[in-house]
Amino acid sequence: MKAFLSFRLAQKKNCVLAMKQALYGGIVQDVAPTAGIAASTPAGGGPAWPFSGPEELPCREWEFDLPDGVSTVVSEWSLVCGHAWRLRVLRTFTHLGSLVCAPFVGTAADRLGRRPLILACAVAALAGAAQTVYAPDFFHFVVSRMVVAAALAGCSLMSLVLLFEVTSEASRSRYVCAALLGAALGSWLPCLLEGLTADRRTLAIAFLGVAFLHLFSFVGIHESARWLLAISDVVASEKYGPSTRLSVYFDAEVYRLRRQRPARTLAKVGPRSDTAASITTLGLLVVPTFWARLVVLSTVFLSQLAVLRGLHSCGHRESSAALPAWHTTALLVPRLMGLCISSWLLDRWDRTRALGLGIAIACATLTVMFFAKAHTFDIGAIALSELLHVSLLTNAAVACVYSLELYPTYHRATGVGATFALTIFVTSLLHLMDNYDLAVRQMFAMSLAVGALVLLNYLPETKDAKLPETAFSVPSRISRRYSLSNTSRASISTLDAGCRQQNEPSKD
Description:
This protein is mainly α. Among the domains are: 230-287, no CATH class; 336-467 and 482-490, Growth Hormone, Chain: A, CATH 1.20.1250. It is built from 23 helices and three strands. Strands 1-2-3 form a three-stranded antiparallel sheet, with no helix packed on it. The protein is globular, with a radius of gyration of 28 Å. It is a multi-pass membrane protein.
């Protein structure tokens, strides 16, 4: 018996959960004897153990290698052995919160405005973060995490829409790529925080402070003047853009919306000339205030803190214990380069061409990874993995700008929210395949990439030029620049014809 206890002590080792060890702190597993252990035989020839064959003992308890006073999600509610399935429940419900909230927030934002939804989501994120600190049991913790994920999904989504609508045509893609760049950097902040502490309450309080500061900064943002103009609230739109110095900037979409409702616009603006009204309204809508840019960029930058490493990890290769900290940080460089490349492509290429290039690179990388030998050296595997991440980030940036440009202002948030929800759904399906073989997952990802290439041929192009001097083009030229369906083009033609009839003098 003494020898058996000594053997058990020798078998204790550090273990990494399927959800990554860095997610919940250091854990030590109490490993029981497993099959394949040779039983010692005494001099008499009979086995020393009371059973003749090897036996596998089930997992009964775990020992957590954590400092005193430090509590993680796993250690506090003992989510190991027979209760390990609760980790997947936590992850699933967090995805579900984002999946359900995105289309709902998008629809509400098109009816109520972008700013009220951002403030509501900020308050909900603050309340959910406070609840995670004082969650009495695992059920309340799951619900609070679901609320935080849903609120941050809506806040990030509306921030991107607001950022897109308050910037000029020439700067939209750059600001969206800058926001995604901040999200890529923000995804590493939880890793840096966990290097200081693994206590879940400390991490939650850190995010609570960030959310509390953001709540005050959200008060300083203004409503999207383009959305106000789209709903014929010209007086309110001029309230948020009264500067004549910026009149050199124009936006084709705002001009098109003004042409659709000239009678109502002139009635609300007043007796001043039409040219002066156009310059004042258009020139002031496209440049946001300092607080608007700061808030929308910092929101996306810090939104990754909401999950507190409960959803995402630092990456498959990056989280390996074989890589030092500076190697893990250095792996950010190619991803940041990928977002810079996407910004360059968006300024010079059509959207569908840029998407096709990124998807083709991803397909080629997946093919090489699939046919690579199992003994491929680590540097080559890491290089292929980073190339895949670069292509995916490039595709994400181009697809984000494409979806924002594809939908008109009056239902842009709804369309982008539905697209965001579909992306979360596909991501959840990929996470469900974590237990499958690597080759199966690569084949599934390759099939998705090939399907995306096929569907790319049926996607319309949005815009092929973003020059401020072409803002006052004729409606037919605007229709060519904006990819609209036949129904939308017919409705615009009908509105233009009605406007011309209203402007013509009466023959009576």
